[in-house]
Amino acid sequence: TLRAYDPAFAYELAIVIREGMRIMYKEQQDLQFYLTIGNENYVQPAAPEHLSREELVEGVMKGMYLYRKSGRRYRAKAQLFGSGSIMNEVLKAQEILADYRVAADVWSVTSYKELHRDALQVERWNRYNPGEEPRTAYVTEKLADAPGVFVAASDYLRILPDSLSGHLPKKMHALGTDGFGRSEAREELRDFFEVDARHIAYATLEALMREGEIDGETLERAARDLEIDADKPNPFVA
Predict the structure, then answer these.
(1) What is the pLDDT of residues 36-90, one digit of tens each?
(2) 96-153, pLDDT tens digit by residue?
(3) Distances (CA, A) of 167 to 53, 102, 128, 175
(4) Measuring CA to CA, which residue among 144, 118, 97, 100 is closest to residue 3?
(5) Which of 72, 73, 116 is nearest to 95 (CA)?
(6) From CA 80, how far away is CA 96, in angstroms rounded?
(7) Spatial contact of 55 and 65, defined as CB atoms under 8 Å apart
(8) What three-state secondary structure class fits 57?
């Protein structure tokens, strides 16, 4: 069985390595862990203080945890999901959204594959045990009461976060690097594939507008402020 993890921060990497060694060597479970690690240099933050060590280890190993709460009391709300180095863009988007009176929480998704795997196992158990109390997938439980729109961004294809769509309480708006490869600097690539902080914030505002949480004028203002070019080539086909 393969378990994939995509550590965004140093403490996530340490947790995965330590837990992987414990599970494979101490508990002698027949598993393989593989890590996806980017080569971007940035300051590594401390672990979030609102989680206990046990909660953090559980979240990292099971695939996601709430990294940073909004701390704002705005009516419009959003849940942002980041993976790998794009987590930094998601955190920037959280601050941008505050300028438009949107309270956005940020989740670190360490493994979409593990979340999907757990959800499929729960789905199968419920199917073959109809007389028992239904089980709940980890991702479903964590997001059951999460308010606002869901927006995910990563360096991967959008189909990866979309794999959870059948197990979420609401629609996931996914941003990813669908399209052909490019050899450019990170800033240009992220703009081209529409996964930088500007596009994450705009996608969130557009989803909120469709939910009736913000008006069209706010979205138009954001498009101007963020220099969103609606006429730029679609990266999926460009």
Answers:
(1) 888 888 999 999 999 999 999 999 999 999 999 999 999 999 999 999 999 999 9
(2) 999 999 999 999 999 999 999 999 999 999 999 999 999 999 999 999 999 999 999 9
(3) 27, 25, 18, 18
(4) 118
(5) 72
(6) 12
(7) yes
(8) helix
> How many residues are there in the chain?
238
The three-point CA angle 174-14-2 to 5° equals: 60
- Rounded CA-CA distance 66/60 in Å is 10
Which tokens hold the place of 36?
């996806």
| 3 state SS of 80 | strand
Q: Which of 104, 112, 14 lies closest to 68 in space, CA to CA?
A: 104
From CA 110, how far away is CA 84, in angstroms rounded? Answer: 8
pLDDT at 1: 62
Q: Which of 92, 128, 49 shows the shortest CA–CA distance to 204? A: 92
- Are 207 and 104 in contact by the 8 Å Cβ rule? The answer is no
pLDDT band at 32 (very low <50, low <70, confident <90, very high): confident
CA–CA gap between residue 14 and residue 21 (Å, rounded): 11
Residue 93 confidence (pLDDT) above 80 = yes
User: pLDDT tens for residues 186-227?
Assistant: 999 999 999 999 999 999 999 999 999 999 999 999 999 999
Q: Is 5 helix (H, G, I), strand (E, B) or coil?
A: strand
- Quick check: 139 and 115 in contact, CB under 8 A? yes
Asked if residue 50 lies in contact with residue 107, where contact means CB atoms within 8 angstroms, the answer is no
